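User: Hello, can you help with two protein structures?

Assistant: Certainly.
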Amino acid sequence: MTSSYAEILDRIAAALASAREVFSRFTPGAIDAEFKAGHDPVTEADRALDVVLRQTLLRDGEGWLSEESADDLSRLTKSRVWVVDPLDGTREFVKGIPEFCVSIGFVEDGRAVAGGICNPATGETFLGAVDAGVRYNGKPARASLKSGLGGAVVLASRSEVKRGEWKPFENGPMEIRAMGSVAYKLALVAAGRAEATFTLTPKHEWDVAGGVALVVSAGGFVCTVENAPFQGNHRNPLLPGLIACGANLRAELMARLSSHMRPASLGSQAGG
């Protein structure tokens, strides 16, 4: 793909290839997990992936934000920052459910401009940049052009569905499909494999940066539940919920979610 981010895309592709090699050393469903503060599981695979991604991606002058690295706030002084989740969907990985992935986002001046996601269990790879479009398993792909929510496949968080957070949407025109890994859901929307996904629950930048880059690069629409564009590399990387869909569904989906949107909080996402 021709892109001003060609070298960045080459690095992302190399990092995803290295990640697949790391995954080959582990058996999903047969790996021990520890639990971090907040009851989030972490495995030896998470840590091994973090190391190989950092080695492959990071260059002098660039910042780094990863779920599995101690946060180095020097990233706030960098215009180009890698925002990665070495293993998004760890719960699914531990249970052997094939809905987990490596998510890599490249943020430039706050914008997610390039990204790559791979699901080693399904053999799917998503790679793209804002000036080059998206490739799904090496072939050009784009977000859905569907213009109505009738029959649209909308991907929901399995844990949010279990908690009852999707009850208000169950009798609508959409086909709701529950699965793990917000990054993987965003990648599927980018590739047109589903029409939309949204979460009304706060997420961290590393959960979504790679997927946001892909959806935007694929011609789709993304905003937070405060109806603001995604902005990355903040001091506090916790974002309000996120909405993503094919561009033609924007108005109808936003109307359906309007009563669940939140006004921007005072100082929300202000500064670095």
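That covers the first. Now for the second protein you mentioned:
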Amino acid sequence: MKELFILVIVVAKLILLTACVSDYIGSSTNEPPVAQETPVVTPEPATEETPEPAQPPPVQQPSEQQTFEDIGISFIPPETAEVTISFEYTRQSGPASNQHAVWIEDMDGNLVKSLFASRWTANGGFKTRPDSIALWAQAADLANMSSADVDAVAGATPSSGIQTYIWDLTDMNGEPVEIGEYKFFVEGTLRWKSFVLYSGIISIRADTETVQGEAVFHYEASERYDALTADSPENNMIGPVTVTFTP
């Protein structure tokens, strides 16, 4: 009986030991850890920044001694820019007078544009009276001008009064000229071979400019008439010449 009781005790301890070993083995196995849920963060939409507009570099203005070309800025005259040539015209009585011409040349002496020429001379009168506005006829190569070119500049002899001629800063082909300096001329046939020539230089720049033409009188006798003198009334045919550039 005693032996049976001891056996029961032994069996009970074995069962308890087996249970403990089993719990220890289960707790030490490499089971994967339970994944923790990561909270989902919704990113805020990116705000697109509007770039600041590029600012142009400041325009350097020329000093009183400088021009726009000196500081590397090209000045382009607007379409309304022009040169006006004005003078008092007094119509003369008698033959071989009243013819006049107005034209522009570059600084090398090349014709840029004819603004006006008396129609009688331009339409062929120079052939019978070659002394009539002869300087313009040579500068414009009148003998070889086309009829269309002659018609573009020829005009009737005006009545006495202020005459104004406008140069639109284009050449004979209608192309704009470059900025810079140009020569202007006003020639008047006073009587036969005696004439007056007004000339000067006008600058096409960024500023308004007004200049006065310088007069040179040439007196020469012809076969039928004596030479004019400084006291001849024909000297008043063309008065002071004023030239203005307006940008």
